[in-house]
Amino acid sequence: MKIRIQKSACVGNARCAAVSEALFQLDGDGYIATDSIDVPPGMEQLAKRGARACPERVITIVEDNPE
């Protein structure tokens, strides 16, 4: 699973980081620090909760394709 973020559309509410600071790291100004995150095993639910917490909906979850 991956997280894709429209970094330029982030307004710094930090609700994603409130769900999981480990996944959604912020820069010094309080905005999301990256535009792509590989979700470690076991953190999938936190990733989904963090995406849902974003009021601007700039966070997208990309599921891995099962082979």
CATH architecture: 2-Layer Sandwich
CATH C-level name: Alpha Beta
Radius of gyration: 11 Å
Order of helices and strands: EHEHE
Q: How much helix is in the residues? A: 10-25%
Strand order of the largest sheet: 2-1-3
Determine the number of helices (DSSP H or I, runs of at least 4 residues): 2
Secondary structure: number of strands: 3
Q: How many domains, in number, for the residues?
A: 1
Percentage of β-strand residues:
15-25%
Span between N and C termini? 14 Å
The rough form would be described as globular
Q: Tell me about the biggest sheet?
A: 3 strands, antiparallel
| CATH fold label | Alpha-Beta Plaits
Mean of pLDDT: 95
Q: What's the multimeric state?
A: single chain
Extract low-pLDDT stretches. none
Task: Give the helices and strands, then pairings.
Elements: E1 2-5, H1 15-19, E2 36-38, H2 44-53, E3 59-62
Antiparallel strand pairs: 1-2, 1-3
Overview of the structural elements:
The chain is of the alpha+beta class. It has a single domain, classed as 2-Layer Sandwich (Alpha-Beta Plaits), CATH 3.30.70. It has two helices and three strands, in the order βαβαβ. The protein has helices spanning 15-19, 44-53, and strands at 2-5, 36-38, 59-62. It has a three-stranded antiparallel sheet with strand order 2-1-3, with helices on one face. It starts with a strand and ends in a 5-residue tail after the last strand. The mean pLDDT is 95. This is Ferredoxin. It comes from Nitrospirillum iridis.
How would you briefly describe this protein structure?
This protein starts with a strand and ends in a 5-residue tail after the last strand.
